[in-house]
Design brief:
Layout: H1 8-21, E1 25-26, E2 42-44, E3 50-52, E4 69-70
Antiparallel strand pairs: 1-4, 2-3
């Protein structure tokens, strides 16, 4: 059962607000390795493809904008 399930529009609105507060930028440097987005948990597995651990972003064309952003705050891994 899915409780508290957000619509795509709600997720995008939250992401836009979070992006503005946390200095998100468009991903223009495709050679830089991407960390983890702490909001949507978007990981970059290769230079062009993103995978979201929270939901399948590929199912909704409205969420395609999320694939064009990376976070400036890289997750540090040991």
């Amino acid at each position: 059962m899915f409780w508290n399930r957000e619509s795509d529009a709600e997720r995008i609105a939250k992401f836009e607000a979070f992006k503005a507060e946390n200095n998100y930028r468009r991903s223009s440097d495709r050679t830089k390795s991407c960390g983890t987005c702490h909001f949507f948990k978007i990981k970059r597995w290769d230079r062009t493809a993103f995978k979201c651990e929270r939901a399948d972003m590929s199912k909704s064309p409205e969420t395609d904008i999320l694939k064009n952003y990376v976070c400036d705050q890289w997750e540090r891994t040991a």
